[in-house]
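Now for our target.
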Amino acid sequence: MSLETIQGSLVQMASTILNRLGLPAPANLSPGLDLTKYNPCKQVVIVHLDNFGLLEVAMHKPQFLLKESKTMLALETTNGYAANVTKELVHGNLTEPFNLLSFVVQQGKNAVVVDREEQRSTAGTATFTPADTDMRVYIETAKLLNRSDLLLIHFLDYDKLLQQHSTRPPLELAQKLLHRTDRWLLGFYKQAVPNTLFLVLGNKGQRDYGIKYEDKYEQWAKANLPICLVIYKGSVG
């Protein structure tokens, strides 16, 4: 079982998303990655998972992500920590005045962000919905899905678990948390209208646990990070 892998850089994600929304990217923005096979796109949903990588997927085997991810974007960056990943995702290779979310709004489309209050400035002129826990992120996303052209949501509980256990949480706890999030993503997938593109972005995976992988799992475990798993709900699905 193989996984298509597209090599690129994190700063290309802004143009990639604009392309999928049918919007022109600023000329000085890094060109996007080719995801034209996922056409047409009615809405784009970005799911940012803190301290999450392909190694976690290979180890804990979340069913939805394993089944529906057909393409992986391996995204080079000089800094894989969450703050920089958010910065390059939103601002691309440009300076702070360019904001992907604000630009989408300027082009006459709707953009919404669901995140912790301290991240409000990230949204620019897009609609911001505060959520102080991952459960609240899930609840608010369920309300907002299919009501915007671009939806950015941010889950942080996995990162908190790592902090509580000095970057090496008990495997059972980590697995339960990832499987819970996987079930939430499955629910979003079922709820989403046809022609919805999900971009599941992980900013920083964990150390190698010394486990041997095969086939698709081996590809995922060896991938450079950050990564983005591409999931598309077509006309039938």
